[in-house]
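Risk register update: the risk of archive-format incompatibility is retired. Evidence:
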Amino acid sequence: MDMIMPESIFDKTKVKKYYINSSNEIIVNIMGVIWYTNIDIPKRHENLIL
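Archived output:
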């Protein structure tokens, strides 16, 4: 997951991957973080067979 990090707390010695976008914001790749959502799609309402 990529996140915008404020320059005041950014330390490039503690991150593996980062880049600066066209708005001069520091984008840091946070490894091991996954974002789940509950978007309402038809698959969400199917019965779960256990």
